[in-house]
Amino acid sequence: MRPTRAMAQRSNLTGFDVKKFVASSGTPANDPWKRYEAWRYSGQFTRWNRLKGAFPGLGIATVAFGIYLGYEALFTKGEQHGEEHH
Q: Could you list the residue ranges forming a coiled coil in this record (predicted)?
C-alpha cells in the first residue's frame, strides 16, 4: 500500500471566496436604499390603506342589503310571491 499525500489546497483561479460572500450577504447596517423604499410602507401605501381601498363600495352595499333584508322580513311576511297553488 502506498502512503497517501495530503492534498494541497488548490488556489482559486477566479479569486472568488464563497465564505466571504456568505458573510457579506446579510442585512447591511447602513442600507443606502432604505430612504428610497420607505414611502412604500407609509402614508397612503400602508397595508391597511391598500386593503381598505380595494373594495370601495362594499361597506355601503352591505348596509343597504341589510336594510333590504330587514324590510323584507318585517313587512312582507304574509305575501308568498312565486308560489301558486292550483
A: none
Contact (CB, 8 A) for 52 and 58: no
Q: What is the pLDDT of residues 39-51, one digit of tens each?
A: 888 888 888 888 8
pLDDT band of residue 19 (cuts 50, 70, 90) is confident
User: Per-residue DSSP letters for 28-40?
Assistant: -SS-TTHHHHGGG
Beta-carbon contacts of residue 43 (< 8 Å; ≥ 6 apart): 49
Report d(CA 44, CA 77) in Å as an integer. Answer: 46
Angle (nearest 5°) at CA 10 between 8 and 16: 145
Q: How is residue 7 written as a grid cell?
A: 492534498
Based on C-alpha coordinates, what's the Rg of the chain? Answer: 35
Model confidence band, residue 61 (pLDDT cutoffs 50, 70, 90):
very high
